[in-house]
Amino acid sequence: MKDAIDSIPVERPIEQEGFANRKLIRPSLNRNDHNHANHAQPGVAERRPDRPERTDRPERNGGGGGRKITPPEQTNAENFYYQKQMQAKTPMVIVLRDGEEVHGVIEWYDKSCLKINRNGQPNLMIYKPSIKYMYKEGEK
Predict the structure, then answer these.
(1) Edge-to-edge strand ranges of the sheet holding 124-127
(2) Rounded CA separation 94/134 (Å)
(3) CATH of the domain at 129
(4) pLDDT at site 67
């Protein structure tokens, strides 16, 4: 009996008491499909059948870190588009930032520029940053 009395602290420090009395305020969720009967017993954990437990979820990144995989630096969609237009020798219209339109066929491309073959005019090498947009001739 004496041990039980000694284990109860006589006095708490004021800092701990002020911190312990704080309450977490959470907004109530008003959803039409929400079942309020499930919340009748606070503290009772229940399993939601429509959502798997955390341990049932597939692991990302091969590890248990839970961090998403960063997207790749380049998707290669641009390269695919250029390859397709080059192989088909599609007549293109390239609109530059200053509004000038260049008509021709893409001969080759690299990381920073396009080479455009034009009929009856000199071929051009255009830097990609100077291109506003481009489209297939006859589509607009």
Answers:
(1) 124-127, 113-117, 101-109, 91-96, 131-136
(2) 4
(3) 2.30.30.100
(4) 87
